Amino acid sequence: MADVAIRKPAIAGRLGGSAAVRLTTASTASRVALRAPAGSLAAISSALGLALPDAPKTSGRAGARSVLWIGPDEWLVIDEAGADLMAALSGAGTLHSATDVSHRNVAIIVSGPGAEATLSAGCPQDLSLSSFPVGAASRTIFGKAEIVLFRTEEDTFRVECWRSFSDYVFGLLNEAAHDAGH
């Protein structure tokens, strides 16, 4: 049997948090940075099996697959089941650009009653439930690192960051979680 490389996050196995916040490294996922004009959205939505959101701070979800609106013609597609997103998009038959960023990104799950306060310690966005509801997603910063923030539940966020910044982001989140726990 041939050796098979198994991908694992740069911060695999790291846990952190406090009594009010839990920090965990998300399982590996397939990710694609997607760019497309408005005229291509229907075909791409069909190829992915879910509608691409077309408004700021929104997302779409079907099963283990999420599509996050990042800009007027830009989305981050995440498949937590590890599906071959590039194969799915290759059959779209329409103008688009898709780049596999599965190895570039790492996700940290921030959950618990202090999750919002933890993220607010390093993120300038208003993360209150009224301004950033469940399903909201945006590109923003945490400390000095660019992240994509996705609110998956009322008290749970998925923080996508480049693997090269993951240790910094996790450490800063851990510090903020301890502050939120007091």
TrEMBL record:
Gene3D superfamilies xref list: Heterotetrameric sarcosine oxidase, Probable tRNA modification gtpase trme, domain 1
Superkingdom, natural source: Bacteria
SUPFAM superfamilies: Folate-binding domain
InterPro entries xref list: SoxG, SoxG_het, TrmE/GcvT-like
Molecular function via GO: sarcosine oxidase activity
Example GO BP: sarcosine catabolic process
Protein name: Sarcosine oxidase subunit gamma
Protein's organism: Rhizobium changzhiense
